[in-house]
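Hello Y.,

Per our agreement to keep a running log of every chain we model this quarter, I'm adding this entry. I've kept the format consistent with earlier entries: sequence first, then predicted structure.
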Amino acid sequence: MNINRTESPFKWTGFRGAGHDEDLFSVQFLDQAVGWAVGGNGTILATIDGGQNWQAQKAPTDQNLFSVYFLDQTNGWAVGWSGTILATTDGGKSWETRETDVTALLSDVAFQPDGAKGISADR
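Predicted structure for the entry above:
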């Protein structure tokens, strides 16, 4: 799968592939090579070659994921339906569910550069 930004900063092409038929809703690149994408039914994909090739990462959920945010190549979060919050400390080799009382759809996630505080929001 090759994800390419069109003239609009909000429209992307090639959001299917890598053996997956799920819609993707968020993509983040740390640099020109390393990035992640998340989408339907717990889909998490990672690339180390600028999006030329994507590898699936196993998520502990089948909920739609709407946003992904990485501080660096190891520490990241993904959020989605029903208050789903996932975290990784190994670049996505493993993801863990973060339990909260939140049940709202979480559509975005971001953290301070030091990772000490983060925020997630619903639509």
